[in-house]
Structures are given as structure tokens and as C-alpha cells.
Design brief:
The protein is about 40% helix and about 10% strand. By secondary structure, it is of the alpha+beta class. Helix 3 crosses helix 15, helix 6 runs antiparallel to helix 9 and helix 10 runs antiparallel to helix 11.
Length: about 500
């Protein structure tokens, strides 16, 4: 029987084996690791919800390109709007609740590094705070254009110059992933560089589905926060206690496990499968096939990539096969045939099936169909972001200065409905707040005050964040109970009550 390839076979860090536990692989192939009476306030909240829903449903032309470097906010107004945002909308309490993790560990929050990018690209590292109040005051005063979150260190980052370099080390940080649309430029048929459109955004949806499933099912992680980067990508924060404690080698092992597309710019085929295919890859293939047949070879009119519509893109895809005879024959067959990308893909698959049925020993093209599918749909991670404890990543809920869009959490319950072009902008939010203050009451039907974020289209995004925080809080409660039981058991043994 063939042995399954262990993605961690080169790891020498015992922590990798202790912290990562496979949960779904069959036993024989498991890795060793792994007109109304409603109050006006209520009425407006409902109108905001309807507005958000309509924005999600409005598709517009599938071929419309948007340069995400072009701001939806007047640059001269951005500093004023940003100050208002930090004063009125930034969710400081929820932000602190997340990063303090219930303060179950002494100095956990106060030893956390933050960095700011200020107006004029002034970059400041090693900021830290004793509590929520100090953090809130500093953010409001400094009004950063960007906030990055770093590791929890052995000491307070703001005092790092007073600590010996050998003693100032990162201890913990969330396991993070960064997926950027520019890494797909070689296979995008619609945009390149900073531009994105509704035809290419599904790359991000696929990435979220595959990475999220692998992290949950193969590693047993539960507390994942997916965040829109505000421009052309997505970030993932894995916040389980086990994930935060991973060493650099453990992080590298997870990142490499999730990396399938490789090779340099000169390599036509960037996915190399061998038999038997690892179960996690087989699972990803099933997800990728669904998107490939529905979207990658879907027509431009239906919002698909239409990857075989033009000769330039045909040659690029066919080069993955590595058989000049088949490539030449198909290019000739497709020339002026008027067929859709889907029909051409079916013809390609038929030719590969014929080749693999020939009576010969080795079948070098046995995995080509799946390799093409993976190369055109599988997530492309920036693994260097994931590998190092001390690598900082942009915070959720900051405003991207290039687009004016808020870096909002993504609802995993309906990934395909997420539309980066309907994400609230800082201008939208301030207008919504002003409109509410002019026209509505600040209490709901039960007399409770309406919070500022509830008056805006940011509310659904905060709701997603709240659901994430509830899950993290549940793990913290379990940890506290365990700590209490251990303390009581120790007291009983020593008599020290």
C-alpha cells in the first residue's frame, strides 16, 4: 500500500507534534501531526439593514474593473473623517476584549506590540498599553492611518530599549494568513495589479473556504477571524490558544501544509500531484472543481473568468499539460470554433482521458486535470507572513487610506455573498451617523440607547465580530475553570488554602 506523504516530515520541532492533532484523516493515513408604530430609531436601523442587503444584491456589470488604489474619499477630507471615525465608531471595547483574551495570563495585553503608520507614511513600532483606556486615548490622539498588531513579548514593547535584547523576545501571537489578489495576476483574465472586479474576487472566496476548512478539520482550530484587507485581499487570524502558542517552526509547518501552488515565474506547471493523493488535497480538489466548472470556465457574461476564451489564455493553460502534441491539436481545434470555455475544457478533459487510457505503464498525465484545476483556483498564500512570530499584520476595523474602506470581518455563513465594493467607507459611515443624529431618536423600542455603530452599515460587520468573540470567550471560560480546578487540587494536596 502506498504511504501518504507527511507534510511535516521535515519538522524537528516537538511542539509541532504536540499542538497539531489531525481530526478527520482515516487511521491508516493519518499524519503524525496536524406604516408603523415603531420608534424612528428602530425604523432607521431597519432601513440601514435594507440598504446593506440591497448593496449586496446589486451586481452591476460583471466586467467593471475597479482600481482599489483610487480612493472613494477626497484625500483632503480623509484626516478629518478618520478622526471622527476613531472618536465615534472604532470598537475599542470589543477590540480590547479580543486581544486581552480575558486577561487569564498576567501582562498579556500590556506586553502586546502595536505599530502605527501616521500621515506621511511615518511608521512607529513598539507601542503598548496597560489597559483599554490607555489604548483608546493613544489611538484617538495619534489618529493612525494604519494599525498593525504584533506579538506578545516577554516585556512591555514600549520599554524595549530598557530591556536587554537577549531578554526581549516574542512569546505568542495569533497564527495569521495573508492572501493578496496580486499573487493571482498570472491567471487572472480580467484585471492585474491593484485593480479588482467581481469576476476575479471569487479567488478570495475559494481561498477562504479551503483554508478555513483545513484549519478547522485538519488542525482542530475553532476561533478563526477572516477580515477584508480594505483593498484587494483577505487576512485570517487563528486565535485558539494552541495556535497563539506555536513556535516559528510550527507556524512554518502549518503554512507549508496549506501551500500547494509553487514554482517560479518560469515554471508552467505549478502543482505536482503524486499518487496516492493526500486526503486534504482530495478534499480541496472537490471544492476547487465546483468553482472551476461554474466560474473559471464560466462565460464573461455570467461573471466567470472565461479562461479559454482567448488564445493568449489558452496557451497559458495548455502549457501546464506539458505535451506539445496535445497542446498543438487543441489550439488548432479551438481556432475560430466559436465554442465556450466550458466546451473547450470538456474537450481538453476528453483528450487527457484518451491519453491516460493508452496501454502503457507510466501515465505522466494522470493528474493533469486536477493539477490545472488547483493551479487556477487553489489559495496562494504569502507564507512569509505566517511563519514568524514577530511579523505584524494590519488590524481589523482600520480604514484603508487608499480606498476609504473599513477592514471588516467577513461572514463565513455566506462567503460568496461578500462584495468588497459594498463594504462601508469612512465617508458613508460618517454620513449615516450625521443623518441619524438629525432625524432619529437615540433609543430603541425598549428605551435602550442605540450605539453609534448600530446607526450605520457597520452594524452587520460588528455582529460578525461579536459572534467570533463569543466563541473565544467560551474557550476562555473553559481555561479559567480548568485553572480553578487545578488550583483547588493543588491546595488540597499542600494544605495551602
Amino acid at each position: 500500500m502506498h504511504a501518504y506523504v507527511n507534510p511535516f516530515e521535515h519538522s524537528q520541532d516537538p511542539q509541532v507534534f504536540q499542538l497539531l492533532t489531525p481530526t478527520i484523516l482515516p487511521e491508516h493515513c493519518q499524519c503524525d501531526v496536524v406604516g408603523t408604530t415603531k420608534k424612528p430609531a428602530t425604523r432607521l436601523l431597519e432601513q440601514l439593514q435594507i440598504r446593506t442587503t440591497r448593496l449586496k444584491m446589486s451586481e452591476g456589470p460583471a466586467t467593471t474593473h475597479r482600481d482599489v488604489h483610487k480612493s472613494d474619499v477626497d484625500p483632503s477630507e480623509f484626516p478629518m473623517l478618520l478622526k471622527q471615525y476613531y472618536d465615534r465608531l472604532f470598537p475599542y471595547s470589543k477590540f480590547y476584549k479580543w486581544l486581552s483574551y480575558g486577561n487569564t495570563q498576567k501582562d498579556y495585553f500590556s506586553n502586546r506590540e502595536f505599530s502605527f503608520t501616521l500621515k506621511g507614511d511615518v511608521y512607529i513600532r513598539y507601542r503598548s498599553y496597560k489597559d483599554e483606556e490607555e489604548m483608546t486615548a493613544d489611538i484617538k490622539e495619534m489618529c493612525p492611518y494604519k494599525i498593525d498588531i504584533g506579538a506578545v513579548f516577554t516585556g512591555k514593547p514600549k520599554d524595549h530599549k530598557k530591556i536587554k535584547a537577549s531578554e526581549f523576545k516574542p512569546l505568542e501571537k495569533e497564527l495569521v494568513f495573508d492572501i493578496d489578489m496580486t499573487d493571482y495576476d498570472e491567471i487572472r483574465t480580467c484585471c492585474s495589479g491593484a485593480a479588482i472586479c467581481k469576476r476575479c474576487w471569487p479567488f478570495m472566496n475559494i481561498a477562504i473556504r479551503i483554508v478555513d476548512t483545513a484549519l478547522r478539520e485538519d488542525f482542530g482550530f475553532n476561533h478563526l477571524l477572516w477580515v477584508y484587507s480594505g483593498r484587494r485581499g483577505v487576512h485570517c487570524w487563528v486565535c485558539d490558544k494552541r495556535a497563539r502558542a506555536l513556535s516559528n517552526e510550527g507556524r512554518s509547518a502549518v503554512a507549508e501544509y496549506l501551500s500547494v501552488v509553487g514554482g517560479g515565474d518560469t515554471s508552467a506547471r505549478k502543482v505536482n500531484l503524486r499518487s496516492p493523493i493526500y486526503p486534504a488535497i482530495n478534499r480541496a480538489i472537490n471544492t476547487c472543481k465546483e468553482y472551476f466548472t461554474r466560474w473559471a470556465v464560466g462565460s464573461e457574461e455570467s461573471g466567470g473568468l472565461d479562461v479559454l476564451a482567448h488564445e493568449e489564455h489558452q496557451k497559458k493553460l495548455l502549457s501546464v499539460i506539458g505535451d506539445a502534441t496535445i497542446e498543438t491539436a487543441l489550439l488548432e481545434s479551438w481556432r475560430n470554433d466559436g465554442q465556450s470555455s466550458k466546451a473547450r475544457w470538456d474537450e481538453l478533459c476528453s483528450e487527457l482521458d484518451k491519453e491516460n487510457k493508452k496501454p502503457k505503464g507510466l501515465k505522466p498525465l494522470a493528474h493533469r486535470k486536477n493539477e490545472i484545476v488547483l493551479q487556477y483556483t487553489y489559495p496562494r498564500l504569502d507564507v512569509n507572513v505566517s511563519k514568524q512570530l514577530n511579523h505584524l499584520l494590519k488590524s481589523p476595523f482600520v480604514v484603508h487610506p487608499k480606498t476609504g474602506r473599513v477592514c471588516v470581518p467577513i461572514d463565513l455563513e455566506d462567503i460568496d455573498a461578500f462584495d468588497p465594493f459594498t463594504v462601508p467607507t469612512i465617508g458613508d459611515l460618517m454620513s449615516e451617523l450625521d443623518d441619524f443624529s438629525k432625524n432619529e431618536m437615540d433609543t430603541d423600542d425598549n428605551g435602550r440607547p442605540v450605539k453609534n455603530f448600530q446607526k450605520t452599515s457597520l452594524k452587520p460587520c460588528i455582529d460578525v465580530f461579536d459572534r467570533f468573540l463569543n466563541g473565544v470567550s467560551a474557550e476562555i471560560r473553559v481555561d479559567r475553570n480548568a485553572m480553578r480546578v487545578d488550583a483547588e487540587a493543588n491546595a488540597a494536596e499542600t494544605g495551602d488554602w
